[in-house]
Fold this protein.
Amino acid sequence: MRVIGIDPGLRRTGWGIVDLVGSRLKHVAHGVVTAKGDDLAQRLADLRRSLSAVFIEHSPQAASVEHTFVNKDAVGTLKLAHARAIALLVPAEAGIPVAEYAPNAIKKAVVGVGHADKDQVAHMIRLLLPGVTLTGSDAADALAAAICHAHRAPALSRLAALDAT
């Protein structure tokens, strides 16, 4: 199963792709799509176009999107939610299932601690995906989201099969 993780951002949206082969993880690719300018609609269009190109190039079978972190700046949180909508829209348009995870759940799945810092997450990604050279924290967070879903997807599939019977 090929999983893409997405860390939404208005100017920088991280993406990371892993293959789950049996119980082993394999790094496929990662990066950041950027949107320039001050016009919100244009930035969202840039993000959608760039993220769609990643989907076309790598053909993921499942997507994992990080929930928006809500902070004191309501306007900033609302704008970030627009980028998150693009992160949900692109996989939905590609016809693949989308799982959503809270940042703490992603960190716990990768590091074992829900309040891990970015350095701890990056360190564990390097251990889980030997040889990977991380290109920044946005891509690292996206790879963490992909790893989180890759770890949880088999159990979720078994639960869904049980529900169907």
User: Anything to note?
Assistant: The helical segments are 40-58, 74-93, 103-111, 118-128, 137-164. The beta strands are 2-7, 12-21, 24-34, 62-66, 98-101. The chain has one domain: 2-164.
